[in-house]
Amino acid sequence: TAATLAAVPVLQNLAWGQVSLGLAAAGLVAFVILGRRPLLGGTILGLAAAAKVYPLLWLSWPLARRSWRAVAAGAGTAAAGAVALPALVLGPSGMVSFYESVLAQLTHSLSTWIPTNPGPQYLPAVVSRLLGTGQG
Asked: How many structural domains compose the chain?
């Protein structure tokens, strides 16, 4: 309804360019159609998981229901999205470089117990990444 769309949390989510509302909507649609269209429902869950990691947990529902088609479609779509989308945007060498950087930062965090953020979204870090002038 209009009241929901005008709610402050929804407006803030949209104003800051967050994808959580879209992922929640995708999850809702997927769960509504999973029983009738398991491949489509699983694919929608996989697309959401390709954008963020936490929608992978949503595949636990079709897994618990032994809806193997939905699980396979979701896992396959998520895996393909995690490889194909970065390769399209960054190019193959850029994608490899990105994943190597993330792996190095995660390895450092695990070895020192000092967390690092491989992709902060505050403006100076984004500009630094775009210009290639710093780690940001």
From this structure: 1
Alpha helices by DSSP H, listed for the chain, are 2-5, 8-15, 20-33, 38-51, 60-64, 68-112, 123-131
> Within a domain: residue 35?
yes
pLDDT tens, 16-75?
778 888 899 999 999 999 999 999 999 999 999 998 888 999 999 999 999 999 999 999
Q: Is residue 75 part of a domain?
A: yes
Residue type, 121: Q
pLDDT at 15: 80
Residue 19 belongs to some domain of the structure: yes
CB atoms within 10 A of CB 135: 12
Q: Which of 12, 80, 78, 90 lies closest to 51, judged by CA?
A: 78
For residue 88, being part of any structural domain is answered with yes
Domain holding 105, by residue range, is 2-131
